[in-house]
Each structure stands twice: as C-alpha cells, then as structure tokens.
Amino acid sequence: MTSNDIQQVKDDLNCLLADLSRNSTELLGQWANISENFPDEIDKAMMHAEMDFAFTRLFREGVSKENIMRALRKIDDGTYGICEQCEEEISAARLKAVPDARYCVACQEALEKEWVGA
Asked: pTM of the full predicted structure?
C-alpha cells in the first residue's frame, strides 16, 4: 500500500471511531433518561429486552473500537498490514474490505476452523 492509501485508511478508521463513539454516547444518553416506573409488566419486560439489545450493541461497538484503535497504532508504528500470525503482508483487497484486519485470509480461515473445532 502506498503512503496515500495508508493515510486514507487512517482517515477512514478515525471517522469510524468517531461514529462509534457518537453512537455509544447517544445510546447511553437515551437509556439514562428512561424510568423503570412502568405500570404494565409487558411494557417493563419490553424495556428490559430493549436494554439487553442496547448493551449487546454497546459491547460490540466497544470491541470494534478496540480493533480500530489497534489498527491505528499499527499504522503509527509501521506494522499495519502485517498478519499477526504468519507475519506476511495482508493483501490490499482484504485491508480495503476489512481495514482493521489482524490476519491474512489463510490465517483467519485457519483460526476460524480452530474456533469451530474447539
């Protein structure tokens, strides 16, 4: 990847990180204003289900933030695009599809087979 490509990836990752942070803040703000004083048990149960969904979403967004920050650190230290398993270069096509990819396709597939078999 050229330095312009890497700068574009960095800019895109920073935008994604800002969007995730904004979404998380908005979601937390919405839930902070909700009262649990529902007279109807069904309404209360629905509210709890929505909260469970929201917290799952927040967790996933947190994982995404960690992955994005890891990719940004790799860009800064010059190791972006290097597979963490085999230490070979990750293809540009994969990085365009998954800018925070940690593994090349072959290593990612091997890890997924290992996880499924475990």
From this structure: 0.76
